[in-house]
Structure prediction request, 1246 residues.
Amino acid sequence: MNAMPQPASEHANLEALKEKARLLRIHSLRMTTRAGSGHPTSCLSAADVVSALFFHAMRFDPKNPDAPDADRFVMSKGHAAPLLYAAQAEAGIYPLGRLATLREDGSELEGHPTPRIRGVDAATGSLGQGLSVGAGMALAAKRLEKRDVRVYVLLGDGEMAEGNVWEAAEFAARYGLDNLTAIVDVNGLGQSQRTMYGHDPEAFRDRFAGNGWDAVVIDGHDMNAIVGAIDRARAARSGKPQVLLAKTQKGHGISFLADKEGWHGKPLSKDELARALAELHPVPPTEDPDPKSYARPAGGAPSDFPAVPPPNYTLGQEMATREAYGHALARIAAVNPKIVAVDGDVKNSTFAEFLEKTHADHFFQGYIAEQNMVTVGVGLAARGFTPFVATFAAFLSRAFDQVRMAAISRSHIKLCGSHCGVSIGEDGPSQMGLEDLAMFRAVAGSTVLYPSDAVSADKLTEALARLPGIGYIRTTRPKTPVLYKSDEKFPIPGFKVLRESAQDRAVVIAAGITLHEALKAHAELAKQNIAIRVIDLYSVKPIDTPGLIAQVKAAGNRVVVVEDHFPEGGLGGAVFGALSLAGIPLASARHLAVSGVAHSAKMDELLNEFGISAKHIAAAVKS
Amino acid sequence: MNAMPQPASEHANLEALKEKARLLRIHSLRMTTRAGSGHPTSCLSAADVVSALFFHAMRFDPKNPDAPDADRFVMSKGHAAPLLYAAQAEAGIYPLGRLATLREDGSELEGHPTPRIRGVDAATGSLGQGLSVGAGMALAAKRLEKRDVRVYVLLGDGEMAEGNVWEAAEFAARYGLDNLTAIVDVNGLGQSQRTMYGHDPEAFRDRFAGNGWDAVVIDGHDMNAIVGAIDRARAARSGKPQVLLAKTQKGHGISFLADKEGWHGKPLSKDELARALAELHPVPPTEDPDPKSYARPAGGAPSDFPAVPPPNYTLGQEMATREAYGHALARIAAVNPKIVAVDGDVKNSTFAEFLEKTHADHFFQGYIAEQNMVTVGVGLAARGFTPFVATFAAFLSRAFDQVRMAAISRSHIKLCGSHCGVSIGEDGPSQMGLEDLAMFRAVAGSTVLYPSDAVSADKLTEALARLPGIGYIRTTRPKTPVLYKSDEKFPIPGFKVLRESAQDRAVVIAAGITLHEALKAHAELAKQNIAIRVIDLYSVKPIDTPGLIAQVKAAGNRVVVVEDHFPEGGLGGAVFGALSLAGIPLASARHLAVSGVAHSAKMDELLNEFGISAKHIAAAVKS
Prediction:
């Protein structure tokens, strides 16, 4: 690769690195003052470390910073974005003149970093997630790609309070990610007050050591110490990830900012900037703003793969969709080497264990730590893999912020939530996913799928593996009969009409377990000479609005939506929203959903009690 | 109080405690076999510890286990619920015969514990949250109530991977909660495989010690060691919380279960039960099932308080609703001693800092750890306080699982999400709450409020403090003008009609920042002789459906909904869902919302770009 030569520390030009750090400080101050917002003092504390990383440690070609063999950097303390941008510009990834566009409408240099910018793998800004991103990338490089790629993650000390960080720390140690180096900028000042441990890097060192990391404390403003520590970390082949706890000062380098409270998130005024720059003289002239965008091209999708042989299920065969998902993963992995699975210690419940049996090196146990599990997935996806992250639907709510950030990253991670709804039965409400459709619908650019049988579960899993953006598939605990032939196609958006006649009294729109209840209701009503149309709305988002409208009209504009989910944000939200915007005058509309807090009981007792069973569907049709 | 005498360890009847442990094992096995589901081996490992807690350490009156001075117990490893129930029954809280109803429809003895049962303060079952519950209760007892109440939390080792646990550990040490004792049941077997640290309690000890706890490792099946350690923890006045790392065996006590893989979540068959009981002989006769419910009475609400003096804002005064929220908290706290605030290191952004100034002892800094912050709130609420938990709306998504569990607990916690929508401007999408209305609407029993000005922010904050269940209030970053007089009332459900005439072309339904944009649009359209009705939908859930229907009809069934939120699950979801179910035939419907991923820019640029500004509202009306 065309890269900067790899200097050993004895060749490290400390003066050059200190000079770069000085420039990074100047840029950070100038940028934020010009933008009128930003976090300059959070940049000043980390400038020496970032200089050592970008201009000594990291191996990359500034003309191609995302080459597969380039080292990676994650700015976990995302509000120090200006510092990252300054380093990237000084490294030559884009011109210095671009820095003046920080936070402007249309500039890829946003308030917090996103992958619109080359060299940035995932969006940060919601604290405590960057170490998981780094762990995912380090895992991919080491275990899947077998590439000598090193991943550096810069964290703030305030964000060390986030449990997500410690989930990532456990995970990285467990997987022996010695190609992962974290640096914590311990500047001792949070947003609103001194952070819990003040200037106590030793406490962090002990905690990291207790988690199986190699941990050292360094003076974060002593370039010789920084470079030495980074080099030793790089050279160590200890099988452990490394962390440098860098004791720093917020606002370091400017006398009226250094370690002063009240400056978080405050840009300097023009006068204050002039005073600050006087302390950093000589300062280079200001660059003319560069109006050209240096953003990465938009778009992208998961790695393509050939057609997957269809599954071998027979009509009427009893199989849970959660189990079919597991078989599908293994089947897709056989033709797609990019498939990886990350599970939350429930692999025998989500059936991700099938992939572990067929492709053990593509299966990673995340243990009971959903936040990290999801964001490790983002790291894996950034390296070109197609991760399927699975746990109980209810427990994916543990990682909503992580999914939200993954969407801002335009990541292609796929998630599977099993054990949805009251249909899980006696385990009770803590285990029941009743809000997951609402959660995943409210994710930018997401696809939300809900198969009712094993064949559709198989096809929809495969579909997700081909679609860009966040993908979610909802699976059911109990066994249900196969409804579709193995060669059935499931377009997205789309739905299936499973029962129809010319005299349909109403259309019942359902999915998953309620689809089967709707079929039972259809049979019951048929005995009473009442015909209904039954629709399997397997694609909840996007929804096939024109197709649905046609079906609703054919059934006299009488609609029953029935779902094993809370009333808000699920099938009902999707269907009634679409019909309203289309101006369809509903002669009659009923929404059967789970209202209130559920409890332990048998599945059939719960379906009845919460009004979503065949009996209730039939009653709704008749009313 | 009428309590069991406080034995010193030298008086502890070890044989009696071992006998109780044997009975707890018998009950756990019998219960789960009868129910046909459950986690008996997870109960067997912890039976000795639970016996020592219930029959030696904890001070409570079984006839009144929720008395304010009773010690508390949290079963954080919620799947060991049968063990808890067995202990409660043996202690006399309810008859042994009730145990046979485990997991039955109608029984308060659910698959995972909930506060339907006396002696249980919060629902568990989503792992890793119990220590936060305990920390919240310990904090309340020690710092607010000044009561000598000890809180015990039993965790499993698998759940120690959850970051939430470590957030709670930091918090408890920071607040010097030496009335909090955690016991970790280190049995080394997760659901699907050996846990990360196997049987390594020493690693946990080091990590807890690094977090500022007193930590010891004990043999979890040696009653003398257990009792001694508990007594020493109780006697220590070290200012530190204590943790006992109990080395145990999953399935301990039964030869074919002890430390065997594959038994997680599996009840014994009738034959296996017979073999197991043979190893635990002599066994007491089976009790007849007791059909009487011993559930706590349902209902409840936050502590009542007198009328709050109204705020002193003038029409047109510019104030951000986030700031008005802060003032409201302080004003309510002046008449309601139960108000407490927990903040996520953004107190100068959420303005919870005002409460810190007026009632510093009722303000708790949660630092950057939202999961713990929310569930500490649940602990505080369990002690009778009315907690207001605040951070940026986007970061509340970090705690969706915790909010979900709080709803299952029927907790009365209140949450405030500031910095909602694209209206925050240049900080960019990582800081923008665009899915929070969807999230909080999909919470059982929640109230979701969205004030557009300082007066309504004040009144709605007060309203939440009086309402039962989870309450959410969404606040805006930029200043907006006061629209209402200080004596205005805001019923829930309800909305305000701010502009109306007899010729309204359409009704525009908005809230927060878009309400102000709608008013601007009204003024613009008036110049063109086009009249529109403008509605401030401050109560998103519950929604005043009949009232809204009347307004929609008066405006010719032409509706524009405009919100600074994603299209899914927010105002649009609420409005169109309600109108659909009411069968209102919309002549025309438009939904203006933020589609896709936002980016850094000025607020006005973003409002325009994402189609929710006055200009777009006017255009939607005209089309």
